[in-house]
Amino acid sequence: MRFEHLGAQPRIHPDAVVAPTAVVSGDVTIGAGCQVLHGAVITAEGGPVTLGDHVIVMENALIRASSTHPVHIGSHVLVGPTASIAGATIGDEVFLATGIRVFNGARVGDRSEVRIGAIVHLRTVLPADSVVPIGWVAVGDPARVLSPDRHDEIWALQKELDFPGYVFGLDRDTPDLMVQLTERYAAALARHGDDRRLD
Question: PANTHER family given for it (predicted)?
């Protein structure tokens, strides 16, 4: 399903194949030879999403840009089932395995592997040819790759990256943080009420 969002329509190369149950919404460019499988969602929430050539987006993956964090995915990239990419830049020839998460402002270098269930956190920079092992967490610039049992170290690095401030423009110490966050985010998402289905 293709949708116009905020006046922008997806641009899909004629050689690309998008499954009928996939959702492509807004300012999305999909390059030659791409395959977008069933249940995948590629949505430009005010900022563009660009997929290079020969990108495979597998079942139920989510790729989301925002007005402040576009998404760029290079060529010859595999995005695994249930993977999630938000506002990030992915280089060429990258393998993003099942269930991975890549957050806003992150950059994943060419030929890197983010293995099953791994996380590349907010504003994290992975150089070319990096590997994030199964279930591990990459955090920081330059990235430190830590096992999930090292929560205190991950949190010490992650806290300085300021997720609520960077993504939502809110101070973490705001007394009613979740009230403000959810109301602001809901208002932005409500813009989908004016979307127009194209197919």
Answer: DYNACTIN SUBUNIT P25, GAMMA CARBONIC ANHYDRASE-LIKE 1, MITOCHONDRIAL-RELATED
Neighbours of 7 (CB within 10 A): 9
Residue 35 and residue 15 in contact, taking contact as beta carbons nearer than 8 Å? no
> Distance between CA 70 and CA 180 in Å, rounded?
23
Which range of residues forms the domain containing residue 8? 2-197
Give the CATH number for residue 188.
2.160.10.10
| 156, two tokens | 């010490």
In Å, what is the CA distance from 31 to each residue of 11, 52, 73, 116? 9, 5, 10, 25
Give pLDDT tens digits for 75-115. 999 999 999 999 999 999 999 999 999 999 999 999 999 99
One DSSP character per residue, 95-141 reads EE-TT-EE-TT-EE-TT-EE-TT-EE-TT-EEPTT-EE-TT-EEETT
Q: What pTM did the predictor assign?
A: 0.94
Number of separate domains in the chain:
1
Closest CA to 106 of 145, 133, 148: 145
Q: How far apart are the first and last CA of the chain?
A: 6
